[in-house]
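Tokens in:
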């Protein structure tokens, strides 16, 4: 079977990091412990990703619907995010990782929005990996907000609309979305930029996910034939773009 993409082409992978709570409760631990172990998994995957041909990695850390969780769990997740931003930046810079955060910032607890901006500025020169963390994120809201901005424009291309949705010019479409813990849903993640993403579902709980699991997901991806609605396998760059939507 023909591979969907040359192995030299840097991929965009999205991950729905699911199963922290179940992993913890099955071990008699608090759910918070599961989220802490989830941060360890993030470290492993961020280190492994560039070595496995990933140029952009988008991680789903907190959805707009996650505000419905108990206050204590939301607070714990925000604290973990705060620690991550404070403690990880040096290592990200050292490893050439550019960090950006997608999603709403206006509802985050005091100081987190500023910490995000500082981390983004500090890592802006990174070229080894673009790490995007989705926080207070909803793909449908991102599309809706883009549509509201687009309403003022007289002409619109897919590329221009993509920039409004993603906040970035030239962001590569998502090649592969991985979801851990056996759940098989997209849960409002990357619905525009993942329109042709391949999907990989694994039973592995997020706190256990490691470089080998990432390699297995990529091996499955590279074995698939991507046709983008056509008849022959093609790579994304060869997809003729429509100038108007
Ligand atoms: C899903 O597991 C996971 C989340 C809602 C949060 C993911 C967060 C982290 C991995 C750590 C914090 C992130 C950063 C960037 C510091 P779940 O709790 O829904 O698991 P369950 O379905 O087993 O209950």
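Residues out:
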């Amino acid at each position: 079977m023909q591979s969907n993409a040359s192995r030299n082409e840097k991929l965009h992978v999205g991950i729905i990091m699911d199963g922290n709570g179940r992993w913890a409760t099955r071990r008699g631990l608090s759910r918070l412990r599961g989220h802490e172990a989830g941060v360890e998994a993030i470290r492993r995957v961020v280190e492994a990703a560039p070595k496995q041909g990933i140029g952009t990695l988008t991680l789903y850390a907190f959805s707009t619907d996650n505000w419905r969780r108990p206050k204590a769990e939301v607070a714990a997740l925000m604290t973990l995010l705060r620690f991550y931003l404070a403690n990880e930046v040096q290592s990200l810079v050292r490893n050439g990782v550019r960090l950006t955060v997608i999603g709403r910032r206006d509802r985050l607890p005091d100081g987190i929005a500023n910490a995000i901006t500082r981390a983004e500025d500090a890592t802006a020169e990174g070229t080894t990996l673009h790490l995007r963390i989705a926080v207070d994120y909803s793909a449908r809201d991102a599309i809706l907000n883009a549509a509201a901005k687009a309403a003022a424009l007289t002409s619109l291309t897919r590329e221009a609309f993509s920039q409004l949705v993603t906040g970035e010019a030239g962001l590569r479409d998502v090649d592969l979305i991985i979801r851990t813990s056996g759940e098989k849903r997209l849960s409002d993640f990357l619905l525009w930029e993942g329109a042709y993403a391949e999907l990989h579902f694994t039973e592995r709980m997020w706190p256990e996910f490691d470089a080998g699991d990432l390699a297995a997901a990529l091996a499955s991806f590279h074995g698939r034939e991507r046709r983008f609605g056509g008849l022959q396998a093609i790579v994304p760059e060869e997809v003729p773009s429509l100038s108007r939507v």
